[in-house]
Amino acid sequence: MRSIATTKGFRAARRRRLAGTGAMLILALALLKSAEAIPQTAPARPPQNLQDTGLYADFESLRVDPKHLAFAPQYPLWTDGAIKRRWISLPPGTAIDGSDPDAWNFPVGTRLWKEFSFNGQRIETRYLERQADGQWLYAAYAWSSDGREAQLVSERGRSAAYPLAGGRSHAIPGVSDCKVCHQGGRSEVLGFSALQLSPERDPGALHTEARPDPGVDLNSLVEKGLLVGLPRSLQENPPRIAAGSATERAALGYLHGNCGHCHNEQGSLKNLGLFLRHVSEANDQPALASTIGQPVKTPAPGQSPDAVLRIEPGHPDQSGLLQRVASRYPALQMPPLGTEVVDGEAAELLRRWIAETDVFRRGARLQEKGGQK
Q1: Which of 155, 223, 250, 273 is most buried, taking the most CB atoms under 10 A from its CB?
Q2: Contact at 8 Å (CB) between 218 and 227?
Q3: Do residues 286 and 102 lie in contact, with contact meaning Cβ atoms separated by under 8 Å?
Q4: What does pTM read for this prediction?
């Protein structure tokens, strides 16, 4: 047992330590109060009104500022039949770095707008702006029913923005929903790329839009000095999807524009081994190699048990990829976001392509055997 004297000694030492600690805390607090505060950068906030983003030269007449460049991708993203208009604006004296043809680098201050209309009525306009730290600012603006103003929607988006067929409705996506698609690859800008702006446009592309006049394509961007570093091979031979038929070219283009931003060799889903994004200077076609005759990795809820292959040549109804594109059952549908109604034209295009695929493969095998005789 400790003696009473020893115990008293321990208590005295403990009081001295506590007193010393208290003095140090007081000194630290005094120093903190006297130190100059370090300003913190506030997170960027998009303007409350669409007109303040600078899209319009005159908002009353909805005249878009002619300094902005209108464009139309050759393989547009399907959004329940919405009619879209798109613009991009680069800061004066800047240019896009196209030295990596599949991941263009956009200068700070780049702005993009995409307007969605149904039956002639503007419903929403989405906005992207590259910030000083290299990050992209995302925003969406909902138009009033009279079409006279467009207000910023919540970061959570807005449901029931416009009624669609079958009791469904178009929803304005939230910021996190936008990022799911836009951050699925190495570039967050979708629809403005070497393939999408190629002058070698696909005449069979689905939902094709007339090129704006004036507008831009790959050649005009290079000529105006707005795109630098693009490999000369792509300037001399504009990118196009190599395919065995017009049907296949259109089908692969549709998959590139609607699925490739997530299903690619660089993004977070690369482990699935499903590569639907066209690669500009590749010697092969990864979309064919990763779909035709390839097994479905994990069947989705609602998928038929006979859909064991992503694409079974000659058998559209047994192909897992088509089943997912042609469904709007939430656990099965593809794409999983941004669309509430089945794209019937796309389902029919993919059906024709899969049906023809077996014919082309058998023809190629016969040709190969003939050459070996």
Answers
A1: 250
A2: yes
A3: no
A4: 0.85
